Amino acid sequence: MNLSNMISGAILAAMGVYVFWHYFQKERWYNRLIWGFFLLTISMVAVVGVVRFGGLSDMIPLHESLQILSGSLGATCVAVGVWALIQRQTISVRTFWLTITVGLGLFVLLLKPQIRVFTPAVQALSMLVVILLACLGLIRRDPRSVWLIFAVMIMALATKVAPLIKINQTDFYHYTTALALICFGKATQ
Q1: Which residues are CB-neighbours of 110 under 8 A, at least 6 positions away?
Q2: Is the pTM of this model over 0.85?
Q3: How far apart are CA 184 and CA 85, in angstroms?
Q4: Mind listing the pLDDT tens digit for each residue in 121-150?
Q5: What are the tens digits of pLDDT across the range 16-65?
Q6: How many of the other CB atoms lie within 10 Å of CB of 16?
Q7: Are 146 and 184 in contact (CB under 8 A)?
Q8: Which CATH number does 3-186 carry?
Q9: CA-derived radius of gyration, the chain
């Protein structure tokens, strides 16, 4: 049992739900659903992680699968959600289902052991798309883009810097990801 990881995971899960309900209330239906898939898959991974770090080792395969789901479906959804936010467009039914299909297709592919090694590349590519879209927003003088850049920088910090710092890497990842989720939420205001 790792109480520290359980607490940080619970905070991350709660933050994902809070950001979704607080910041995305005014978004149009399909835009909100796309953001919901991004935020709530992260929260779902965190909740299962709390149980895993609580000592239930049977949850490890589910936790790892949900991490892949978050890194594929969630990453696809955040890229499309940011695109709609920067373009100030409503996501159509077709775009919504295409996004979900691509995200779930990536998930199924990444479940294969030979392809699983590409999971970090999918996440990194998604964050690259988000930062490029945020730069497009900056060119258009959209102040919300600054929050998106902060969010991506914090996500990069969470995934790339944690191994270099001598602190609990899981806690660092949970807290920095929770902070990034707040930045994504602030971008909608």
Answers
A1: 68, 71, 72, 116, 118, 119, 122
A2: yes
A3: 11
A4: 898 899 999 999 999 999 999 999 999 999
A5: 999 999 998 888 999 999 999 999 999 999 999 999 988 888 889 999 99
A6: 26
A7: no
A8: 1.20.1070.10
A9: 16
